[in-house]
Each structure stands twice: as C-alpha cells, then as structure tokens.
Write a structure and sequence with these properties.
D-Maltodextrin-Binding Protein, domain 2; alpha/beta; 3 domains; five-stranded mixed sheet; 47% helix
C-alpha cells in the first residue's frame, strides 16, 4: 500500500509524528497506527517514575564508534519496567557538556548522566581511581572489576558514599596519543624522548596530567568541544583520548600520527543521582541496574567488533574503517613490546612515586584503603580472563 504525503500528515495530526513515521516506513495505516499510538499513550500514562538523562555529546552518528549502548539502556529500562519507568534521553550535548554532566547529576538537576571518568574527575575526584597509567594490559579486566561485588569498596561505594551518585556502567576503549598535523613530516614517534616538551591536550584529570608530565610533555587542559580547533590551529601538538572517540568526533582528520600506547582506560561512564534511584522500590532499582549490567556487557562486545569494522584501531581493521580510510594522512603507529616497555619504564606509576604521591594520598583517604594496590592486584589476577558481567548489587 502506498503511503502518501497526505496520509503522513493526517496520521501525524491524528496519532503523532512518531506513529506516522512508523507507518511511512512500514506501510501501516488505519487501525494498526491507532493501536500503536494507544500503546504509547498508555505507557506514558502509567509511568510512575520519570527521569531525565543527559547523555552528554553522544548522538546516533558517533554511537557507531563509541558503543555506549545508552539508547539500548533506556529502551531496556522502559520495557523491563513495563512502562513504570520513563526516561527522557537528552543527547547531542543539549543537556550538558562533558565537564558538566556529573555536576548536574550530583545536584539533582539531571537524574542520570554520562561522561568520561576523566572529565567527571573534575567534580568527583574519585572517578579517576581506575585510571593508573600503563596498569591495564587489556580492557576486559577493568570491566570485570566494576562488575565484581568484592570490588565495590574500591570504586562504586566511594561514588555513592562521598558524592551521592551511583555509578551504573562504563564502556572502555584504551587511551592513546594523537599527534597533530605538524607531525606529518616527522619520523614516527617510537620512543618517549621524541615527545619531550610537546604540548598535550588532556582532560581535566590529575591522573592524566601526571601521565603527561612523566613522559616529559606539557599538559594543556582543554575542553573536548575546543579540542578539534586546538589540534587544527596548533595550540596543542597532540591530544590524548581513546580511538573510537577520536574517530567518532572527527579528530583523526587532524591527526598525523595515532600512537597506540593503550596507556590508560578510556571510559564512557553512566551514573545516577542516588536520591533519584532511591525514589523507586527495590524491584525497579534492580531493573535499572540490570539494564546497566546488560548495557555494559553489550558495550564491551560491540566495541570489540567496532574497533575493527568502524574505528580501525583493532587487530584486524577493515578497509572501510576510519583509520584505514585515512591511511594516506594519518599513520597508525603500533609498537613492539620492547618499544612499549620504553614508554612504560618512563610513565608507569611505580617509576614516578613523587609525581603520584599526592593523588594516591587523596584517593586512599576517600576510600579508606590502598587504592592503587587493590586495583593493581586485581588487574594482575584478572589479566587475560574472559568477560564476567556479574550482578554487583546482588
């Protein structure tokens, strides 16, 4: 059946734009549209708990790269609660910038939000407690940590106790260094001495600032929204972020060398105001957390696939991936273990006791334990283990 423009306008007027769009795509008309609209109206009517989710700068286009699963998370919460929970998802930076989301969630202006842990650390200092440079050898161990109930005192409990914010889940794509266009004619960076004195754009994180200093670089805090222009203009010589973020936000177009150092976790976190969570009965809280658990597991799997097929920073990048498409302008610099060891020897926490003394002292005081020691022991024990997305609240 042909669905004309007149049909679309009539359906939109009678049943709403969402139902009309569905009808246009499927050829559905009449009673079926009415049934769909009725279900939507019923779901909205019976929602007992309504929350606002500021999904920072994520949008459907860059989600292909980031694999945050924020859209799936919202869908699962609403479906699994049978409409008792309704979430207004505000994406595309319309609710908050990266460095604002966690502040607004903590204040209750937003119920749920997202940002990198590194940007969140400007407000929630403890958010960076897993970010120790050159500690993580694979991204799975960190995801297992935030799912492990025995590790709640090391991370989740501190968010809630000290800041009134419940940590839900995170994606994780390792952080690298991206050198700007002035490095197009320079030799590939294969030793830390080649980075000495370079101005490195960093997130507003003490941990990342310490990392840059340990390699002899000059850290320059720069908001994410200003980073593209900073790379173009040469205000900074390079930046640190994770590969899917660099590709998803167009940063690879102004990159001459992508240095695959995997020096730290690139975490896109989702979190919720504790008071907002506690408004709900326990069974709905469990639905919210279960949706977060599923989103975490799905993000981990799908990001692994996208690293090859979308971003191109994986072990087997496809021809259509971003890195491969830009191979004539951006060199993807991969390292041997001996070359990586030179960076690790220069930048690891154990090699820079003085630099990291202050942050360790502050994090230990917040948690009431040796944070680095606990995280390092867990990473060593879980290195190379498969994904195990446990129910951390059970």
């Amino acid at each position: 059946m042909t669905f004309s423009r007149r049909d679309f306008l009539r359906a939109s007027k009678d049943y709403g734009a969402k139902a009309a769009m569905f009808a246009a795509m499927t050829g559905t008309t009449g009673a079926a549209i009415s049934q769909l609209a009725g279900k939507q109206a019923h779901a909205a009517k019976k929602a007992k708990y309504k929350f606002r989710h500021g999904a920072t700068v994520i949008n459907p286009k860059n989600e292909r790269f980031l694999q945050s699963q924020v859209y799936e998370f919202v869908k699962w919460v609403e479906e699994d609660s049978d409409g008792e929970i309704a979430i207004q998802l505000i994406d595309k930076g319309q609710a908050c910038a990266e460095n604002q989301c966690v502040e607004r969630v903590g204040a209750g202006v937003l119920d749920i939000g997202g940002s990198s842990a590194q940007n969140a650390a400007a407000i929630i200092y403890y958010a960076q407690a897993l970010d120790w440079p050159f500690l993580w050898r694979d991204r799975t161990a960190l995801i297992n940590l935030v799912h492990d109930p025995k590790m709640n005192p090391v991370y989740r409990d501190v968010w809630q106790r000290e800041y009134g914010v419940e940590f839900l889940y995170t994606s994780n794509d390792p952080r690298d260094i991206f050198m700007g266009l002035k490095y197009s004619d320079k030799e590939e960076v294969r030793h830390p001495d080649q980075l000495k004195g370079a101005k490195l754009r960093i997130t507003n994180s003490t941990m990342i600032e310490n990392f840059a200093a340990s390699l002899g670089m000059s850290p320059v805090p720069l908001a994410w929204t200003e980073t593209l222009e900073g790379m173009k203009s040469g205000v900074v010589d390079g930046m640190e972020t994770w590969g899917s973020a660099a590709a998803g936000f167009g940063m690879t177009k102004v990159t001459a060398q992508a240095l695959e150092l995997d020096f730290g976790p690139g975490t896109g976190c989702m979190f919720m105001n504790s008071r907002s969570m506690e408004r709900m009965p326990g069974r709905l809280q469990d639905i919210m957390r279960e949706a977060a658990r599923k989103a975490s597991a799905r993000s981990h799997v799908e990001q692994g696939k996208a690293s090859d097929s979308v971003t191109g920073n994986g072990p087997n990048p496809t021809a259509e991936s971003n890195y491969v498409q830009l191979k004539d302008t951006m060199r993807h610099v991969r390292y041997t273990e001996s070359e990586l060891d030179a960076f690790r020897d220069r930048g690891a926490v154990e090699k820079n006791g003085t630099i990291y003394a202050d942050i360790r002292k502050k994090l230990d005081k917040l948690a009431g334990l040796d944070v680095y020691g606990a995280v390092a022991e867990y990473e060593q024990r879980m290195r190379g283990q498969p994904l195990n997305p446990q129910k951390w609240w059970a």
